[in-house]
Write a structure and sequence with these properties.
heterodimer, A: mainly alpha, 2 strands, B: Ubiquitin-like (UB roll), three-stranded antiparallel β-sheet, elongated, binds fe (ii) ion
Chain lengths: 328, 100
Amino acid sequence: MVQPTRERLNDQPGDPGFEENLAKFEARVARGDKVEPGDWMPDAYRQQLIRLIHVHANSEICGALPEGTWIPHAPSLKRKMALVAKVQDEVGHGQLLYRAAETLGKSREEMIDELIEGKAKYSNVFHYPAETWADVCVIAWLIDAAAIVNQKMMAEGSYGPYARALKRICYEEAFHLTHGYDMCISMATGTKLQRDMLQDAVNRWWKPIMMFHGPSDKESKHTELLMRWRIKLKTNDAQRQEFLVKYLPKMFNLGLTVPAEWDLKFDEKTRTWTYNEPDWDEFVHVVRGNGPVSAQRLETRRLSHEHGRWVREALAAAASGRRVPMPN
Amino acid sequence: MTDTQWQVFEVFHQPVRGEPHVHVGSVHAPDAETAILMAKEQFARRQACVNIWVVRADAITATTYEDADIFEHGTDKSYREAFGYETTKRAKAVGDSAEL
Ligand SMILES: [Fe+2]
Ligand SMILES: [Fe+2]
């Protein structure tokens, strides 16, 4: 498709006709109509979506880093092939999402560069190290599960290109989840050493997982607007609850426990879990690039971008009919 | 860094011979040949596919959603449709009961 026009006419409060256009836009969105590139949209809608899709894309790319590191150490050929496939999917998701964000007017190049330069955020969970193979299992099962809760919801959102990309992504995530659960079942039904490794991984990952869906509704400043514009259909707390209700019983069934400090209790009356609120200041600190391995992640990302440079240069040269010397 | 912002190609895939090509998304690539390679990796990793088209995005001319009213029908167009006719009944009346 032809890129949307860059003259963003009268899309900010105070511009002529803004209120009238906004009312029409909100009515359309409330009806469940999809917004397409080139349609009139409030600038704030555009900016919020660019921000969200950019972070989402970065998270797919950065999520591939801890898993990619473990490819050479996979315990069997089957697990290795599955992990390679998953990592390829995640990078593919990143590319699909960068394309979706581009339809709103920010270039892929800008987004890639901002990530490498540490100016753009990515999911809190990938600021933590994957220390053992059991971490790979926990990431593939529980973090993918938490991400699926979020992505299924966003796939019903109002912006057409993002929703379409997410439909495709959710289809592939079904494999990630099955693969992750399968690995966790192997570990949980294995030797004592394997069971302990899995529990240890859960213990270390539980905090980032509790924070994954973002600050509590009491703290989250954008939620109301995002929900009115159907960018988001559920609050952060509702997504967290959905994840807990579905996956805690499965974890307990595998003999896993959750660190006691969270004081997780099931309230039979409301059919929801109560828990000690995560430290949201810590969350903000981590996603701003101060997590345990934030610096290493970006360095790996930068190196991989640099290592791929000759390929991009060779492709570009070939496309322009030039021959380039290959590196030795 | 100015080496990743290649042109955009829209991707159409055909899941089985005989079916229409369907738009599935787009890729960045320096030329059409590379776009095919990218499209294969991005959109044909596991689902059935027998053929892919890539088209430079800037080669596509599209209508705008604001002009969607050009597709609206001002008058009754049922004379263009099979359902707009009661000919089965009329054919029977003239002695033809076979399928139209
Ligand atoms: Fe993904
Ligand atoms: Fe995934």
